[in-house]
């Protein structure tokens, strides 16, 4: 076959594939451009203006919004710090809970499917509902938890979400309910570990901790990394729970004011500063990008890339 | 047709479908008005009357998000605003001053002065007020009746005297009644309240700011273009101390829930709180739905200052969209809406018009068409009430910086504050810093 003819055939094949690509990806690409790319672009433009929802003629203000956020706005710093604390606290809690539960649910016992379903169920409850339920359970006066604590003689039961000192911590504790998907990711990873490795370790007389440290953790480390990334991003952009717990405004005393809530309040409460909120969104994006980059850097030290199971 | 063309055709069809849905506009001849969801069907008679007299049909939309309305750039001709938000929205409305000047039947002076002033910026009137909201003292008659004996004894009342709040009540009277109306078990620091004399507004400024105004204080330093906070004053300290004592005082002082108790469902609407200081007219509907036996009175004033400034006054208002193509027709409807006919129609639904003649209009109604609430109290309260500062960041400042710090005074425990002056001083610093770095 001549070279030219071969090229023709290859080109035809390529064109055919390209056709299918366009058919399947066209709509999705259009959706991406219309609903993601253009709004993102608009946000970038907005961030350099003093646009408000009801303002008729927005002015170009250069870097003013960015500078004001970074140098003047006390709530910008407070809400960002609280989001970082929340993401870290909630992240550790969710990570540990999901890994422990995944290991428990990896056991070969009768009715394990039912247990897996039960443990996954909390994940499908919306954060709004979780928040509302926990506000009742943790009410300092009438809530179940403090009633139990009082029954056991605890004199000064915690004020939970009513005190600015403990509201964020309370929210971190409640957020541990969000372990569902992470638990499944760990479970899938655990089920991919060949049992022979543990059998050999047993013959060698390895302790449970040593087996976990030397076999389990290295082999699930790629999934651990995936979960860390997901948990970090989820924690940073957490909104619903904080919205319910803080009555939509960071109550009490801005102690549950996470960054997405503050951004929302800035854009959609008086005086509706859309331009400033857009600048905040970009700064937030940069923070999350940096954190994700940091996660990738750190992952070099714990993710085993050469494991083959 | 090539594949590329087919794809383009599909995308074009999709785009046109979206565009067709987005451009589903109503008939151009119709005058459009945006109303709240609870107004649905309430003013149909007024619309019919307008159409019959002018030949212009009116179509109302209910409960639409203002943000979405303006983003379509096809907003209705008449849009709701208020004396509180007009500062942020004014650029989207037509100046009504020329219309009012040209119309012999309408005049800005027909409306309560402070309200029309609040809707006016640099001589331009951006909206006409349609219904008033003013702070009053609300009381639950049932809870008062249950404590009739104690109240009579405390106030030296005879059987013929009313046990309900009176127009000349001072803060001390308010507190005396409030303490009587509060119920608790235990004693000392171990009191557990089951009922309170008054509500505590911890996340909304409507109570605290009234105390400040009544004491003669202001939130901003006058003459600073509302950019410098004035609450490190003696008046602010006295007002805030009363506000705090009400919730945090001893058994003989406390008559409102603190922050912790507040989270347990104590509220006037729940029936376990006897009074609201600074409640608004917008709540009337809810009280009636719950079949509460309630009344209103003028706000109690600080001791020794019976002529103190009153509570807050604001108004719902309507303006004409700058993009409206039917501005003249819209003004005709607005005149009707904000005039006698509209005010009387709205009165049927528990709203009080912003006309200076409103009291007389209600007095002229047959007894059967009047609500059971003493409307003279509302007009007396309006006389001495003050509007909120027009500064557009005011609501944000109050929400994010003031009420958050005041909250720390309203509970016991770690992180709580007890030094009123120190908290006020900190608030002033926050607010001044906020404005110092803010562009206009």
What profile does the largest beta sheet of chain A have? none
Radius of gyration of chain A: 25 Å
Straight-line distance between termini of chain B: 57 Å
Task: Find the count of extended strands of chain A (DSSP E, 2+ residues).
Answer: 0
Residue share in β-strands of chain B: 5-15%
CATH homologous superfamily classification of the largest domain in chain B: Periplasmic binding protein-like II
Give, in order, the helices and strands of chain A: HHHHHHHHHHHHH
Fold topology:
The complex is a heterodimer of chains A (309) and B (440).
Chain A: H1 3-46, H2 64-71, H3 74-105, H4 112-124, H5 127-137, H6 144-151, H7 167-175, H8 180-191, H9 195-203, H10 208-236, H11 240-245, H12 259-268, H13 274-302
Chain B: H1 3-22, E1 31-35, H2 44-54, E2 58-62, H3 66-71, E3 78-82, H4 86-89, H5 97-102, H6 113-118, E4 120-121, E5 124-125, E6 128-134, E7 136-140, H7 141-146, H8 148-155, H9 171-181, E8 183-185, E9 192-198, H10 208-214, H11 234-248, H12 259-262, E10 273-279, H13 284-289, E11 294-297, E12 313-320, H14 327-337, H15 340-347, H16 358-363, H17 375-384, H18 394-407, H19 420-436
Q: What would your notes on this structure say?
A:
The complex is a heterodimer of chains A (309) and B (440). Chain A is built from 13 helices and no strands. Chain A is mainly alpha-helical and 309 residues long. In chain A, 35% of the residues are buried. The mean pLDDT of chain A is 90. In chain B, 42% of the residues are buried. The radius of gyration of chain B is 25 Å and the shape is globular. Chain B has helices spanning 3-22, 44-54, 66-71, 86-89, 97-102, 113-118, 141-146, 148-155, 171-181, 208-214, 234-248, 259-262, 284-289, 327-337, 340-347, 358-363, 375-384, 394-407, 420-436, and strands at 31-35, 58-62, 78-82, 120-121, 124-125, 128-134, 136-140, 183-185, 192-198, 273-279, 294-297, 313-320. A five-stranded mixed beta sheet of chain B has the order 2-1-3-12-6. Classes of the chains: A mainly alpha (309), B alpha/beta (440). The interface between A and B is large, with 46 and 47 residues.
């Amino acid at each position: 076959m001549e070279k030219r003819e071969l090229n023709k055939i290859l080109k035809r094949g390529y064109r055919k594939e390209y056709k299918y690509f366009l058919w399947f990806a066209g709509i999705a690409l259009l959706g991406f451009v219309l609903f993601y790319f253009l709004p993102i672009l608009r946000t970038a433009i907005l961030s350099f203006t003093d646009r408000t929802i009801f303002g008729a003629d927005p002015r170009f203000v250069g870097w003013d919004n960015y500078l004001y956020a970074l140098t003047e706005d006390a709530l910008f710093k407070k809400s960002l710090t609280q989001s970082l604390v929340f993401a870290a606290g909630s992240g550790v809690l969710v990570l540990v809970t999901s890994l422990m539960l995944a290991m428990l649910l990896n056991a070969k016992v009768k009715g394990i499917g039912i247990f897996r379903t039960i443990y996954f169920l909390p994940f499908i409850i919306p954060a709004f509902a979780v928040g509302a339920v926990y506000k009742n359970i943790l009410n300092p006066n009438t809530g179940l938890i403090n009633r139990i604590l009082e029954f056991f003689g605890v004199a000064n039961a915690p004020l939970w979400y009513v005190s600015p000192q403990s509201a964020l911590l309370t929210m971190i504790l409640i957020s541990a309910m969000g372990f569902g998907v992470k638990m499944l990711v760990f479970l899938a990873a655990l089920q991919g570990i060949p049992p022979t490795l543990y059998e050999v370790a047993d013959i060698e007389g390895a302790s449970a901790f040593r087996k976990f440290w030397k076999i389990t953790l290295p082999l699930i480390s790629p999934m651990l990394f995936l979960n860390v990334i997901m948990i970090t991003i989820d924690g940073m952009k957490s909104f619903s729970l904080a919205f319910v717990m803080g009555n939509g405004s960071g109550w009490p005393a801005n102690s549950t004011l996470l960054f997405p809530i503050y951004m929302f309040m800035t854009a959609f409460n008086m005086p509706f500063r859309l331009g400033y909120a857009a600048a905040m969104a970009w700064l937030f994006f940069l923070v999350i990008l940096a954190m994700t980059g940091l996660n990738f850097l750190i992952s070099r030290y714990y993710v085993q890339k050469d494991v083959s199971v | 047709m090539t594949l590329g063309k087919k794809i383009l055709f599909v995308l074009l069809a999709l785009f046109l479908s979206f565009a067709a849905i987005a451009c589903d506009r109503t008939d151009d001849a119709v005058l459009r008005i945006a109303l709240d969801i609870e107004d649905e069907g309430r003013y149909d008679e007024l619309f019919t009357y307008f159409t019959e007299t002018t030949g212009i049909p009116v179509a109302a939309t209910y409960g639409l998000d203002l943000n979405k309305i303006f983003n379509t750039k096809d907003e209705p001709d008449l849009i709701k605003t208020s004396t509180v938000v007009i500062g942020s929205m004014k650029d989207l409305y037509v100046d009504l001053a020329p219309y009012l000047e040209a119309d012999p039947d309408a005049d800005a002076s027909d409306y309560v002065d402070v309200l029309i002033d609040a809707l006016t910026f640099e001589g331009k009137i951006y909206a006409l007020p349609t219904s008033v909201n003013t702070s009053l003292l609300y009381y639950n008659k049932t809870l008062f009746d249950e404590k009739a004996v104690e109240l009579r004894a405390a106030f030296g009342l005879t059987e013929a005297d009313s046990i309900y709040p009176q127009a000349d009540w001072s803060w001390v009277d308010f507190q005396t009644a409030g303490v009587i109306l509060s119920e608790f078990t235990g004693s000392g620091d171990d009191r557990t309240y089951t009922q309170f004399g008054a509500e505590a507004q911890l996340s909304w400024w409507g109570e605290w700011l009234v105390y400040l105004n009544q004491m003669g204080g202001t939130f901003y330093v006058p003459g600073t273009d509302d950019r410098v906070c004035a609450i490190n004053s003696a008046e602010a300290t006295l007002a805030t101390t009363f506000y705090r004592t009400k919730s945090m005082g001893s058994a003989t002082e406390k008559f409102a829930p603190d922050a912790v108790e507040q989270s347990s469902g104590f509220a006037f609407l729940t029936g376990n709180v006897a009074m609201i200081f600074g409640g608004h007219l917008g709540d009337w509907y809810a009280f009636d739905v719950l079949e509460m036996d309630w009344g209103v009175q003028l706000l109690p004033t600080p001791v020794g200052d019976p002529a103190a400034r009153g509570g807050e006054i604001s108004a719902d208002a309507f303006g004409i969209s700058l993009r409206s193509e039917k501005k003249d027709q819209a003004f005709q409807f607005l005149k009707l809406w904000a005039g006698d006919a509209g005010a009387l129609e709205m009165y049927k639904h528990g709203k009080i018009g912003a006309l200076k003649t409103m009291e007389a209009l209600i007095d002229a109604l047959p007894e059967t068409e009047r609500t059971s609430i003493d409307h003279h109290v509302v007009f007396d309260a309006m006389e001495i009430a003050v509007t909120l500062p027009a500064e557009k960041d005011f609501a944000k400042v109050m929400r994010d910086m003031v009420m958050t710090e005041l909250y720390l005074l309203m509970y016991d425990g770690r992180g709580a504050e007890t030094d009123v002056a120190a908290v006020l001083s900190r608030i002033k610093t926050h607010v001044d810093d906020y404005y110092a770095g803010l562009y206009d």
